[in-house]
Amino acid sequence: MKSVKRIEAVYCKLKAMHQGKGISALALADAMGLSRANVSSDLNQLCREGKVTKSDGRPTLFAPGGSIAEAESSETTLDKLVKAGRSLATAVEQAKAAILYPPRGMHALILGETGVGKSMFAGMMHKYAVEMGKLAKNAPFITFNCADYSNNPQLLISQLFGVKKGAYTGADVDRKGLIEKADGGILFLDEVHRLPAEGQEMFFTFMDKGRFRRLGETEEERSANVLIISATTENPESSLLRTFTRRIPMIIRLPQLKERSIEERFGLILLFLKEEARRLDREILVSTNAMRAFLSYNCPNNIGQLKSDIQLACAKAYADYVSYRKECIYISTTDLAGHVKEGLLNTKDHRNDWGKLLSMKNNYYVINPNQAELEDGEMAGLDNVYELIDARVEELKSRGVSQQELEAIMERDIENYFNQFLYGIDKRFKKSNLANIVDPLVISLVEELVKFSEARLDRVLSQKVCLGMALHIQTLVERRRRNESIINPQLNHIRSKYRQEFNLALECSKLIEKRLDISLPVDEAGFLTMFFILDNEKHHTSNGNVGVIVLAHGSATASSMAEVANKLLGVDYAVGINMPLDISPEEILHQLRTCIGTFADCPGFLLLVDMGSLTTFGSIIEKETDIPVRVVSLASTPHVLEATRKAMLGYALEEIYQDVLGITTFNEASFKAKREAPVSSRLAIVTVCLTGEGSAIALKSFLENHLRLPENLFEVIPVNLIGTENIQQRLKKISEKMDIACIVTSFHIDTKVPQFHIQEVLNLKAVSEIQDIVNIQSTYLKMGSTIKYHLKNVDGERVYTDVKHCIALIEEALHVKLSVDSLIGIVLHISCMVDRLKGGGVVVKYCNAAQYITDNRQAYQSIRTALNYLEEKYQINITDNEICYVMNFFEIKEPGEYGL
Amino acid sequence: MNIVLCCAAGMSTSLLVERMKTAAKELSPEANIIAVAESEILQYIETDDRNDRADVIMLGPQIRYKLKSLKHEGEAKGIPVEVIPSVDYGMINGKKVLELALSLIK
Questions:
Q1: Fold of the domain spanning B2-105
Q2: Mean pLDDT in residue range B26-43
Q3: A822 Cβ partners below 8 Å, 6+ apart?
Q4: Mutate which of B87, B88, B92 to test chain A, going by most A C-beta atoms within 10 A?
Q5: Dihedral class, residue A336 (left if φ above 0, else alpha if ψ from -120 to 50, else beta)
Q6: What superfamily in CATH does domain A423-535 come from?
Q7: I need a labelling partner for A35 at 20 to 30 A (CA). Which of A78, A142, A356, B99 fits?
Q8: What is the number of other CB atoms lying within 10 angstroms of the CB of residue A591?
Q9: pLDDT value at position A391?
């Protein structure tokens, strides 16, 4: 009997100590305080049983399970846990001991504050016990929270111990308790300090002897083999716990989150993000700053809170993603709860930690649901914030900045870097310093660009240019982030007129792409060129610059807005006219006239006003002076800034006006516009009913409930059959605004659009088919963002739009309507073609192209004409061979075989 | 094992092929994935050289109309022919298409 126990203990200890290489009998004997001979014989016995393998050579090494080499990869749950966090080493050792303690393990009490992961740890102990063969594979792990029933002791006891039929009113059957359910496994009692007095004695008896009675039972004593793991947040010195701890020798203390290392915290954050990514089955991107906040914020409720805060952030980001505010699930600081954001303020405490863990240059982390490792764009190089700061110090020093100044600058830089993510734009204007509104990354990039350009141009660029460029690149980054296109109508003009500057701008553009990890079209080089010629006075005096005048109610509003813009740009350009409330509009109009009189040869004026009568001044001035005037109302500082900047650069009035209007759309409006503007890219499901719109509307809500319709993309439109216009006309009207994906009707309607009978829909037969249509249609609409990631030489979204435009032209010319299936194929084909040609890729051959073209003259002509649009826009040459392939798509083939 | 994707020019599927190849590294390293034009597909069915012959043919949704006739040709040689689901095609979901292809072979 005894030797059986020993052999078990030896086996367990071997497994516990084993770390891949095998263990000698001597080492094992020493660790267990047994004689080597005994251990050795046990090990050889185990070997014969096939539970243990031994190595060749001396000393003989033993390993549990299969071969030694095989065993190397098998690591227990708890070992993995220690690997992930050294601060858990003690707890893990104790847990192992508790589980492996012969014969059936030792009851354990886990202590730790709320959220340190007590339940999770207990779960891992269970898993470990199974891995070590101490518990059967399907051994139960039952969790019970004593707090749940603490105000009803009877119920609690019945839950734990079970009930005999008739024990109390309502106990009409014999019922097993949790203890019985946990037989052969582990019972985890959370918040054990809430176990009421009545339950304690029974429980202690059970713990001591393994015997218990169901509630109401007197005779029969039952037994169950259960390992108890209890947990509490309380001080173990409290009275209850003292009696408890007397019976539970193994007390495992789990450290608080703040006691654990930053690497462990990082590991946990990644783990939780990954869990979310897996749950959503999508990549999650996390900005470096958000990652910093997660690492540093004060998290009193420990891991539990960390997890829920991360989940919350993921949920917010996901909401933005599904509502099309974001292209992907991207967690930025704005998605974080206030107390998490505060983590960014703990800069002093954490700067070194961040430096160790987070790189600075790649702006975000990618958490991939399918991948074990964290992807980190470019970890190598001098890319963390502190090295960057070091570099900046070097640079300032080389400019001969004094130590004192240096410290001041650095302090401000660092502060600004972090603060700008926390406070709104207005606070950033506090100091008239560029670093207050522009990302320091952009600033350092611009400094680099300026250095580079000055060397190439062999002249010094003015401060105005540097500032302008910094602001420009900042907006550029934002534009790209919102996926707005960059189009320079003057591109060819600029390219030919300022050849040298344009070439330089191209190189700068490449540098920007590299540094900020964005892609820029060649148009951008056209804009950058303007900065290099800005200092040549000739350029803008010849055109004349648009005047920027700010008008606002209040005694200093307008002038201070103008002042901020001027200071930030290092110019004296924007003019502010204040309108104190006691002054009449006529008086202000007069002032405005005088002001406009001071501008000579001005090609136009942009008035930025706040509200009221001021908005009408534009047309008055325009009439009086014959100079074009545009008015932007509800203006705020960013408008003035943008207007001033663009006006200085010599932009035309209309361009400035449109761009400034665009700023309003910076936050909410641009997303709104994105969702609502391209009406034609929305889809409709039309329900047609005979009897008024009532049942059509009911059908509408039925469809909305049973279909997964991507929001903002689909609309169910109820229509009644009888009306002033006939149904065809009304469908036509709808299709002018949106594409009709399908029709649900009880009548046959003569149209090519797929239609379903109401009956089929109501009995759910057609629902999956409609869902397929919905999925395919929305895939098509989203293809722009899909191909964006696949095309190398052109902007996918833009190509997508342009290609769609071309296809529409061809469809119109050839009087065909392609199915969505074909559309997906053809969009992919033409987009890839543009990308391929733009990148100088191979030109494909088409067999007998000439013959094919002769046979299909008209199709060829129409397609040639439509594709000409792409040729010009992307400056590529589309050969006849390529056109033949495109023609293939438009051949009308066996209609009716596919109905979409 | 030859997985042959077929579309009008054998070019719009090239992105998908790239994606599938990436996925194949994990799922099925022995798979040889190629894209061919509609006009060339027959030779991948008719050839008697087992190394050249397709083991499965996936059609781009835009040539769905070819399914009937190609399926007929393919069946004679025991080659499954299927249309790539439009959603996977449009999303360039290489992994899903590969999984579908592999499931058809088995």
A1: Rossmann fold (3.40.50)
A2: 84
A3: A889, B61, B62
A4: B87
A5: beta
A6: PRD domain (1.10.1790.10)
A7: A78
A8: 15
A9: 56
Give the DSSP per-residue string, B38-95. Answer: GGGHHHHHH---TTTS-SEEEE-GGGGGGHHHHHHHHHHHT--EEEPPHHHHHTT-HH
Would you state the pLDDT for residue A424?
Answer: 26
The values of phi and psi at residue A549, to 5°, are -125, 130
Which of A776, A832, A847 lies closest to B14 in CB terms? A832
Q: Do B64 and A898 touch (CB under 8 A)?
A: yes
DSSP string, A852-890: HHHHTHHHHHHHHHHHHHHHHHHT----HHHHHHHHHHH
Nearest CA among A200, A82, A828 for reference residue B90:
A828
What is the percent of chain A where pLDDT is above 90?
A: 2
What is the spatial distance between Cα A797 and Cα A807, in angstroms, rounded to a whole number? 15
**Distance to chain A for B51, nearest Cα, Å:** 26
Share of chain A above pLDDT 70, in %: 78
Contact predicate A226/A179, CB 8 Å? yes
pLDDT at A887 over 50: yes
Domain boundaries defined on chain B? 2-105
- Nearest CB to B62 within list A776, A826, A832: A826
Is the CB of A888 less than 8 angstroms away from the CB of B87? no
d(C-alpha A192, C-alpha A229), whole Å: 10
Domain A2-74 sits in CATH at: 1.10.10.10
Contacts B90 to A, Cβ<8 Å: 776, 779-780, 782-783, 786, 824, 828
Q: What is the fold of A539-676?
A: Rossmann fold (3.40.50)
Nearest 5°: the CA angle A796, A836, A524 is 50
Mutate to test the interface with B, among A768, A778, A822 (most CBs of B within 10 A): A822
Q: pLDDT tens for residues A838-882?
A: 887 777 777 788 888 888 888 888 888 888 888 888 888 888 888
Evaluate whether A824 touches A789 at the Cβ level (below 8 Å). no
pLDDT band, residue A383 (cuts 50/70/90): very low
The catalytic residues of B are: 7
In contact, A831 and A796? CB cutoff 8 Å: yes
User: Is A826 in Cβ contact with B12 (below 8 Å)?
Assistant: yes
- Judge whether A617 and A592 are in contact, CB under 8 Å: yes
What are the tens digits of pLDDT across the range A64-107? 765 443 333 457 778 777 776 678 888 888 888 888 887 788 88
Please state the ipTM of this predicted complex: 0.83
Q: Which CATH number fits domain A679-781: 2.60.40, 1.20.120, 1.10.3470, 3.40.50?
A: 3.40.50
Nearest CA in chain A to B95: A370
Per-residue confidence (pLDDT) for residue B81, from 0 to 100: 92
Sign, CA dihedral A893-A897-A900-B6, equals negative
Report helix, strand or coil for B34. Answer: strand
The DSSP element (H or E) to which B2 belongs, if any, is: strand B2-7
> What top-level class would CATH report for the domain A83-255?
alpha beta
